Amino acid sequence: MIFMNKPKKLILGFTGLLASGKGAAAKYLEEKHQAGAYRFSTMLRDLLNRLYLPQSRDLLVKMSESMRAAFGEDVLAQTMANDVANDAHQIIVVEGIRRLADIAYLSKLPNFVLVEIFADPKVRYARLIKRGENKDDNSKTYEQFLADHQRSTEVSILEVIKHATERTDNNGNLESLRKQLDELVKKYKRSL
Fold first, then answer.
1. Phi, psi at 6, each rounded to 5°
2. Gyration radius of the chain's alpha carbons
3. What is the rounded distance in angstroms from the CA atom of residue 45 to the CA atom of residue 47?
4. In which band, very low, low, confident or very high, does the pLDDT at 7 lie, cut at 50, 70 and 90?
5. What is the pTM of this model?
6. 3-class secondary-structure state, position 15
7. Which single residue of 26, 32, 106, 179 could bond 37 by disulfide (Cβ 3.0 to 4.6 Å)?
């Protein structure tokens, strides 16, 4: 990956527990600040689609574990870093950072800022059920939702969060989240 003679970019890496609002934050930055946005789960969903498999949380976890076991713990981060390096947007969001290997690789990118998106468990559960992003989300009980936090793709987030330099509280309404994101962009765009 070569960064010479490329315009400076602000790269915001979003981490946070299940349904904390990482996707809503990324979508807002795309719309309001014309950010480029990448999700770790997109490449996993692409592979599941290619194999004609349903996009369930269980299969996403298995695909992630298989990819990392076969090609190295940082294979997804390498892919993401190359996508970001080739993106012409001045602001780029990398959503769904879950493992220390991800931040070890992504933190080498110039102007990378790791941001925790935080929300309480009950708030996150209500959002998960409402959005129904995965096939099995709408029927999930609160106990199943909490059990999902024990999966390999979720447990590691607790370690990643410790490395965040910024924290965005998403327990409020959408307007509150947007205001915090605007302030975050304003703060870091000054240094570009």
1. -105, 145
2. 16
3. 5
4. low
5. 0.87
6. strand
7. 26
* Residue 108: φ, ψ to 5°: -75, -15
State how far the alpha carbon of 69 is from the alpha carbons of 64, 83, 160, in Å: 8, 21, 19
Residue 125 token pair = 């559960």
Angstrom distance (rounded) from CA 15 to CA 78: 17
Q: Of 87, 84, 108, 110, which Cα lies nearest the Cα of 95? A: 84
Distance in angstroms (rounded) separating the CA atoms of residues 102 and 75 = 9
DSSP sequence for 102-128? HHHHHTTSTTEEEEEEE--HHHHHHHH
Name the token pair of 36.
């480029």
Place of tokens 């602000």: 10
Helix residue ranges per DSSP H, the chain: 22-33, 40-50, 57-71, 75-85, 100-106, 121-131, 142-148, 152-155, 157-161, 174-189
The first and second tokens of residue 87, run together, are: 């993106």
Please report, for residues 11, 68, 84, 146, 164, the alpha-carbon distance to residue 154 in angstroms, rounded to integers and kept in the order given: 22, 15, 24, 10, 16
pLDDT, tens digit (0-9, with 9 covering 90-100), for 28-73? 999 999 999 999 989 999 999 999 999 888 899 899 999 999 999 9
Tokens of 95: 């959503």
Contact between 31 and 182 under an 8 Å Cβ cutoff? The reply is no
